Every structure is written in structure tokens, then in C-alpha cells.
Amino acid sequence: xxxxxxxxxxxxxxxxxxxxxxxxxxxxxxxxxxxxxxxxxxxxxxxxxxxxxxxxxxxxxxxxxxxxxxxxxxxxxxxxxxxxxxxxxxxxxxxxxxxxxxxxxxxxxxxxxxxxxxxxxxxxxxxxxxxxxxxxxxxxxxxxxxxxxxxxxxxxxxxxxxxxxxxxxxxxxxxxxxxxxxxxxxxxxxxxxxxxxxxxxxxxxxxxxxxxxxxxxxxxxxxxxxxxxxxxxxxxxxxxxxxxxxxxx
Amino acid sequence: xxxxxxxxxxxxxxxxxxxxxxxxxxxxxxxxxxxxxxxxxxxxxxxxxxxxxxxxxxxxxxxxxxxxxxxxxxxxxxxxxxxxxxxxxxxxxxxxxxxxxxxxxxxxxxxxxxxxxxxxxxxxxxxxxxxxxxxxxxxxxxxxxxxxxxxxxxxxxxxxxxxxxxxxxxxxxxxxxxxxxxxxxxxxxxxxxxxxxxxxxxxxxxxxxxxxxxxxxxxxxxxxxxxxxxxxxxxxxxxxxxxxxxxxxxxxxxxxxxxxxxxxxxxxxxxxxxxxxxxxxxxxxxxxxxxxxxxxxxxxxxxxxxxxxxxxxxxxxxxxxxxxxxxxxxxxxxxxxxxxxxxxxxxxxxxxxxxxxxxxxxxxxxxxxxxxxxxxxxxxxxxxxxxxxxxxxxxxxxxxxxxxxxxxxxxxxxxxxxxxxxxxxxxxxxxxxxxxxxxxxxxxxxxxxxxxxxxxxxxxxxxxxxxxxxxxxxxxxxxxxxxxxxxxxxxxxxx
Lengths: 249, 495
Ligand SMILES: Nc1ncnc2c1ncn2[C@@H]1O[C@H](COP(=O)(O)OP(=O)(O)OP(=O)(O)O)[C@@H](O)[C@H]1O
Ligand SMILES: [Mg+2]
Fold this sequence. Notes:
The complex is a heterodimer of chains A (249) and B (495).
Chain A: E1 2-11, E2 14-24, E3 29-33, H1 40-48, E4 53-62, E5 65-66, H2 72-78, E6 80-83, E7 90-94, H3 95-109, H4 117-130, H5 136-139, E8 141-142, H6 148-162, E9 166-170, H7 178-191, E10 197-201, H8 205-210, E11 215-220, E12 223-228, H9 230-239
Parallel strand pairs in A: 3-10, 3-11, 6-9, 9-10
Antiparallel strand pairs in A: 1-2, 1-4, 4-5, 7-8, 11-12
Helix pairs in contact in A: 4-6, 6-7
Chain B: H1 18-24, H2 49-58, H3 63-77, H4 118-126, H5 131-137, H6 147-162, E1 165-168, H7 169-175, H8 177-183, H9 194-202, E2 207-211, E3 221-222, E4 237-242, E5 247-252, E6 264-265, E7 268-273, E8 278-285, E9 299-308, E10 313-320, E11 325-328, E12 331-334, E13 340-349, E14 354-363, E15 369-378, E16 383-392, E17 400-409, E18 415-424, E19 430-439, H10 442-450, H11 455-471, H12 476-489
Parallel strand pairs in B: 2-4, 3-5, 4-7, 5-8, 6-9, 7-9, 8-10, 9-11, 9-12, 10-13, 11-14, 12-14, 13-15, 14-16, 15-17, 16-18, 17-19
Antiparallel strand pairs in B: 1-2
Helix pairs in contact in B: 2-3, 3-9, 11-12
Adenosine-5'-triphosphate is lined by residues 11-12, 14, 16, 34, 36-42, 85 of chain A.
């Protein structure tokens, strides 16, 4: 589904990703862990096509299509979804209006039938319920005044409506209380399907008890330095990252 | 952020008291007649007594009207062009302007939309303007009687039944001279300001509205219905009189970009809102703003003011997106006790546009209340200033004002300024002032784009959200159009 080969990228002329390889097959969940500043969020932004994230080498394909050739919004419409580590607020634009515009853009691109206002509302309410957000949140400005945990749940709610092919969750678990963690994990698990893949960036093994990954990778200094199955996460929890120094996958 | 009754206003520009305005109301002397000795149809550039005689003659005006114009002309000659507005434009040579051009004969216009500038047509289409209206707006000679004519006829019959007068002001000068004599310049005195005086001397045409006592006007009055009848030209003059207990909602302009060869526009609008009456005046202004390099474009210097008598309410709502330079302060003189003044404004500037707009709320009566909501949006290299004056006279016990003044910046080369002036001679008056400046951030655009929404749509969503409080004051159909208008006006401001 998603193939990343020797990906190198700069931010503000600083080399952050230094030859990263990753192969994600349909239906798989890959967890990425790694020290602060390793480039995990950068990877997410590079895949999403954020302005100012300059790819200097390598390739990324989504179902064989050259992802790097597409503009940010085109990648989103193709099915790339990024749940942000720090979701921004858009005051004045209601969550509902934002979601409708988003869903419309994505569905039009995928040549799926449009949702009329009534069925959209129904789906939006269901999604809110699934992540335990009150329906009032649909009327509020996008992330406006939301608590940290509410913002994260709002991201998952959006993911549910957009039905992406590949979802990148950047530390969606940080800032969540124990119940919310469960709620978010349930939301993700409900979306797991043979056609949909996930990259789950996290610092905590705990999340992976709920969302059980097929693979766990360690990203350090702009590269994947170790890969394994879910047991790697347990090992990391125990030993930290120090023992991996100098190692390269 | 909220403050009570602070700030003084060292720089507030002079504004005559309502009392004085009332006194000033038309001390007309009606002297001898005149003969128009100019016969040609198009007038050479320049302003003189002869020009004014010519304009007046063209409209077959009665002598008193001519005399009134001439007097205004002489007063204008003694006045200075204001320079305090936060705008920059080349000095206008008032002798290089032509003050009268005969309505273009239909035969001179384009024969079909194929002959009209394709950019203009593209904009019409984006705004969803129906074909026959496009033809009308572009000045295409249309022989066929189209729908809107019959709509206009029904419309006029309904108004007549209610006793409402709605006609060109040139017609009212003939048909209702007593009303004109009584109320013309009763709200905006001839000498009020430079452009108002100029307008008095040379006004081309405009609307006259009279709502009789106790009548609730059965429909929104729109200049739009008159678009076919009279080209109001560059010096528009509007007078609305709402008798005791009456109500009217008036819509001016339309979202379609207006073509006009005249660079200077100086309109005057006067509202007379008698005891217990309500006037709602909504404007969408979309004159040609000039091109992306800032060439061309209309200079729009407008004086709009209403006098609110006891228990009455005046509400100004405006969406300003056009013109190269806008200078405009719709104001309320809250003369009567318990009268209410409201000002809701969206002013958007892009490219090299400049806007200096706001309002004046003059609290004279007791328990008068005013609300000001101003939303300024600047994009490109444009500059957008809010200038508002809130004044409490000594007798305005229990008066209150609430001002909210927000600016939104798109990009990093534009500017927003706010100049709130507060003058209070009544220590008990209460004023609350809130102001914010925000930016459409790259992060916000990124969030939208990551959800599949392109940057232009994202900006328009953010801008529309920002303007919500004002749009909800607009009549329904206008609100939808206004949203689309902002979207079109912002094209090219991102990406
Ligand atoms: N705009 C920028 N200019 C310079 N350096 C940047 C910029 N953006 C990110 N970086 C740097 O790139 C490196 C990788 O950052 P990134 O956010 O991808 O780390 P991360 O692995 O997500 O860390 P964390 O676990 O703390 O979220 C960091 O050293 C960061 O300081
Ligand atoms: Mg990060």
C-alpha cells in the first residue's frame, strides 16, 4: 500500500530524514517509536505534503502512485490522513462546516456518492458518539477552546468520517486520560480493515496494548534503526533507546 | 478586554451637532430663474456654475432646486479636501472630472454578452448571477421583456397600495417638492464635509423613499429593481423618510461588480427615522477595485447618516469589497430618548485597495444605545482602517455603547489599523470596547489542506466564519451572496 524508499527530507535547510525505508501492506498497523526530535512528526508532515518540508531524495508511493508529486490536499483526497500531534484551532469555522467541506472534497475526488445534509449529520453524530464527544462539539469552532484530550478525540472523529487509506496518528495518545485512551483505541480498532493501514506514532507501550501493532519500528536520527513485532515495544519500555545507539536497520 | 468610558478623542474630526443640523435644514432662498445655455449632451470636464445649471436643466428641475445646488457649489468652493483619512491616493483634480454624461443609449452598448469582457462574465458566473441579469449589468441592449420587468411592476403596485413612495430622487423633486424641501440636507448639512457639499451641487440621481405613519413596508426595497430605469451615476443621493412607527428595510447595491467609467464616487445617504420608526439599511459595495497592480479603480467617498428620533432604531449593515479607495462612515445621530443605532460592517481589501471606514454614534437622547461590530479583512498589499467615533453629549443619561472591532490579516504584506475615538461629556455613559487582530495562519491552512480542502476554499471558510456576526444581520438572500462575494474577492490572495 505505502512504500517509502530511502526518504530524505529537510526542514529549514536542516536535514531531518536521512534515508528512511518502510513498507506498509494493506490492513497493517505499524507503530513508530523513538526519542524526541528523531523525526517522527517530520515523517508525518512529509507524507502529508506540508509546505516547507523539502524532500531531497528517495520516493514514496501509495498504491503505486507517486505520492510526492501530489499537492497536500490531493494526498488527503487520495486517502492520506494525519492526526496531528498539536491540532490547531480555527475560530469561527464550525467543526461541522469544516467536516462537511472536508468530506465533500474527499468523496468528490474518490467519485463516491455525496452525502446529503441529513446523512452527513447522522454520520457525524455517530462519529462523535464513538469517541465520546458531545454533539455540541460539532457546532463549536474547529478545536476552538477544546481541551487537549478533546482535540485528539476530534482528530479521530474526523478520521472516522474521512475513511482514509493510510492514517498516521502522531502521538494521539498523549494527553488522553485512561478512559479516553480506550475510546480512541476502540475508534481505531473499529476502522481496522484489510484495505486500511495505520502508522501509529507513540512514546508509550500502553497504547499498543489496545491497538495491537503488526510491526514496531524505532526511528532515531532520521532513520528506522530497528524493527520488530509488538514485543519490541515491551523491550523498549524496559531498556529505553540507549542500547540501540549505533544500530542501523 | 473591556473598558468603561475611558479614552478621549484628540483627533476626532468635527461633526456638527444634531441640533445644529436640524437648524441648518434648508434655509433656501428661491430667486430668479435661469436659462441653460449649454445644449450638448456630454459635458466638458470641469466644474462651474454653468455646469450646475446644465445638470439641473437636464433634469428640468424647478428653480429652487437649482438655487440650492448653486449655493452648495459656492460653499464647496470655500472648503478644503480632507486629508485625515488613512488612505493614500493621487490628488484629485476636480476640474478634470466630467460632471455629467448623458445616459448611454442602448444602441451604443454591447450587442450581446459575447462582446463583454470575458473576465467580467466569468465573475458573474462565479457569483451565480442569472443570464438576463448579467445582460442588464453589462449594459447589453436587450429587446425582449424579461422577467424582472414584470416583477418590478408587481412590486410597484404592492408598494402603492401600502402608500409607500419609492422613486428616483429626481422624480421626487417634481412630485413631492414639500418633502424634499423639508428633508433634503436635514441630516447631512450641505457643508458637512467636502464631498457632501460637492454631491449637493452636482448629484446625479438616487432613490427617494417615504414610508407613511405606522406602515410596515411590505417588502425589502432594493435599488436593484431600479437598475434598469436610471443610471444613478457617480454622485448618488438617497433620502429615506420613515414616519412615526413605520418600518423599512432598504438594500443598496448588488454583489455583481459594477462597471463604471467614473473614477470618483461621492454619494450622500440621509435617513430620517421619526418616533418609533425602524430603518434597516444594507449595502453591498463592489465597485471596480483596480487591477492586481493597483491601477484604476473607483474612489468611493460616501457620507451616510441617519437621525433617530424617540424610540426609533437605525441599523446600518455594510459589506464593502470594492473600490480602490473607500472613505465611508455610516453614522447615527441618536437624538431621541431610547433610540438605538447599530453598525455592522465587513470591509475587505485585497491587492492595493485601501479602506478607511467605520461609524459615528452620537448619543444625544437619554438611554440611547449603540452597537458597533466591525470586521476588517486585509489581504495582498492592502490597507484597512476602522475609524469610529462614539460621542455622549451631556444630556445622554443612561446611554451605552458596545464596540467590537476585529481585524483579520491574510498574508504578511497587508495592514490593519483601528482608530476608536471616544468623547464623553456624560460621566454616567457606559462604553465597552473590544478589539482583536488575528491572522489566517499557515497552520490553519495546512490543517484544512490535510483534510482535502484547498487553500482558497479554506481562506473563504475562515473569512466567512470571521464575518458571521455581520452576515447574520443581512437579509437572507444577501447573506448568501455576500459569502460568495468575499470568496471571489479573495481569489489569488493565497497560494
Ligand atoms: N522548522 C524547523 N526548523 C528547524 N528545525 C526543525 C523544524 N521543524 C522541526 N525541526 C527539528 O527537526 C527535528 C525532528 O523534529 P520532529 O518534530 O519530527 O521530532 P519528533 O520525532 O516528532 O519528536 P517528538 O517525539 O518530540 O514529537 C527536531 O530536532 C526539530 O527541532
Ligand atoms: Mg513529534
